[in-house]
Amino acid sequence: MTLDPVLSRLDSDLSAATNRLFDLLRIPSVSTDPAYKADCDAAADWLVADLQSLGVDASKRPTAGHPMVVGHVEGDGPHLLFYGHYDVQPVDPLDLWDRDPFDPALEETDQGTVIRGRGSSDDKGQLMTFVEACRAWTAEHGSLPCRITFLFEGEEESGSPSLVPFLEENAEELTADIALICDTGLFESKVPAITTMLRGLLGEDFTITGPSRDLHSGMYGGLAMNPIRVLSNILAGLQDDTGRITLPGFYDGVPELSDAIRAQWQGLNFDHETFLGDVGLKEPAGEQDRTPLEQIWSRPTCDVNGIWGGYTGDGFKTVLPSEASAKLSFRLVGTQDPDAIRKSFRTYLESKLPDGFTVDYRTEKGSAASQMSVENPAFEKALNALSDEWPDKAAYIGCGGSIPIAGYFKELLGMDSMLIGFGRDDDQIHSPNEKYNMESFHKGMRSWARILDALTT
Amino acid sequence: MTLDPVLSRLDSDLSAATNRLFDLLRIPSVSTDPAYKADCDAAADWLVADLQSLGVDASKRPTAGHPMVVGHVEGDGPHLLFYGHYDVQPVDPLDLWDRDPFDPALEETDQGTVIRGRGSSDDKGQLMTFVEACRAWTAEHGSLPCRITFLFEGEEESGSPSLVPFLEENAEELTADIALICDTGLFESKVPAITTMLRGLLGEDFTITGPSRDLHSGMYGGLAMNPIRVLSNILAGLQDDTGRITLPGFYDGVPELSDAIRAQWQGLNFDHETFLGDVGLKEPAGEQDRTPLEQIWSRPTCDVNGIWGGYTGDGFKTVLPSEASAKLSFRLVGTQDPDAIRKSFRTYLESKLPDGFTVDYRTEKGSAASQMSVENPAFEKALNALSDEWPDKAAYIGCGGSIPIAGYFKELLGMDSMLIGFGRDDDQIHSPNEKYNMESFHKGMRSWARILDALTT
After folding, report:
1. Which of A394, B32, B139, B267 could tie A386 with a disulfide, CB 3.0–4.6 Å?
2. What share of chain A is helix, strand, coil (3-state, %, to 5)?
3. Looking at beta carbons, which residues of chain A come within 8 Å of B93?
4. pTM score
């Protein structure tokens, strides 16, 4: 048996693996904030050194933004590309964290031991599950079972601006038989999953300007139009009373579920009242004629991620502000066209601006949704390997998040992707107190060992 | 002649008076921010010392908040109470100031010399016009022409929380024949004014909470209700398409203008296109069936003074926030009842909250509108005195701002108030780069000398 000694070594090496992950988690590699540029660089260096310690030919590769880490090991059998990202989300509001986000620690909870810290689940903990599986395999067998290319990105949380040019420039080097992407979750704690449906993402970050300066509301109030009122009207008009998004053409390219997928989802034990109740909510907010799973996996959305304008400090200031700003994101599905939707949104927004108002847009990015082709036999092998490791049978699922990398791999490198990850819904991956269950970390490594075995024998 | 030598001394002493004002402007007495508590105290001390130098029996008087300054001089004839406030507005956004807000300076502009700095117009520069008139009078005649009580408050920009209890506790000491309040403006640069109609103010500062923590919009987006969306809907629903405020009962107690006032206002040379055009706006925003002067002087309003929620830093964060917050203010007129309107607003807001959402209110203050009784002969005397000083005839006008002090004087001390000030519309009193025209400062002092003369001969 080639697999059993690798699994045993992963079990006995778990503490050391946890310490290695802690070293990586201590590096505050927040990609969206220029203040952390050197830290992103340090995280890349750390990964290069760690891969080199496994015998991987690894190097840091410059981009216009944060660097990529690329590594190669040669071998027979299928050529796999493994992708993860070493950058993490911002940590604010910092006062809601129970500890320093970059001083990771183990905590005992009613779900068992968890690793607490920014990036523990998204995505440093996840990417290290694969690295640790490779480390154990190499230690037991002297080499990996097949040719593997490693690709670690440092801008995933910033919309991956350097990724497309990097894939284009290095297409030959990076094209493999199939990609493995570890940035998704379990379906639930006992049910592993391969995500085959991903929503796309379109962001809009903009400021509306009305008066040329802040005004005193006593002097101008009632006569001068308030940009916050204009912005509120714009945002309020984006959805109708049934939760449907009102932009003309928005639903072009939104597919209906196939009967097979609809039946499979109905069979999944998804309790939306518990899902919402766990975060203090009661009512589903999306389109009223869609099931909760459709709302998060297969329907497009519009959310306001941030809003600001006027006086926000302590006490009162009767100001009529010059500006109001918002950050919006649309989750896209099917063949919805990000460019067409951006155009429709901007046309709508500008139609709502009073004469004399202006708008300044700060964003230009968007990515379409992805759908994997599960006909590739690797999917079935990986699904079975996951079922062997976890208590319940593995499932093909959708995901509300956007991981455009799978679309880029298909489009630019002609490569299918298997999205396999071990996060849980309550990992708080973009919130304070992010965590990764020790079970996810441990069984994640073991899952990858099983998948490597399944794909190469 | 008692007046002429006083006017001459005010002319020759102008530079020294300006330097005294600069000393006061250098004290950053921002009352709304606890960080400036010691500075508010220092401004009160400065005023006590300055009044004492005029022979006024002045002292700093503690309150639950920032101190009052009270001073007395005895004399024959009418007993006047003069009111001003030594606290100033916050200065943010600081980066929009062309200089340190608390390092005042003279600047030459196309309107002549101006005094630049926070508080120059609102209200330190204005209150010093009266103090300087008293200084010159005392210097020329050895004493003031009548009994005068000085009352300087340090919480006007914070809604005057200590004022009512202070007036109640010291009613006998503070009650005079008439109050003079210097915190308003000219009608226009050549036209002085007595403000006889003031809007009231009701503030609401609140936070809506939905999810118990920030959520990842990829995981929850579409299913979890977003508090910013809820807040936008609440704010957007406050006004209808014609600019009318939709709260039930909101217009109860809003009077129509008398024919006389309507005729007088139509005679005023108010060009709303220029008024709005000067601040980069084109369209009036208020009730479409009301004239622009009605919109700012005699109609109630609702403005959002601040809004915040979610991620507002650089770049993107696909967060579905737990909270969204806003600060609103309503300007009130006639006999609108602040308590009834607050209740109507909160009923409306809470009716819009999805099941499971909560709201936390941080405000409890409100003041009704005021209307002065111009039958008191002091009004006519002061109006004529103003007409003597300025190029054009003085007018009785309305004011969009809220100066509840006049209402308190009437209600608690049975005293009429004359609101006379020399600010201009473009003083940017709650904005960056606040200024006070040197002409306002100089002719303001001279106006008070004339008014003192008119009221005592």
Report:
1. A394
2. 35, 25, 40
3. 214
4. 0.71
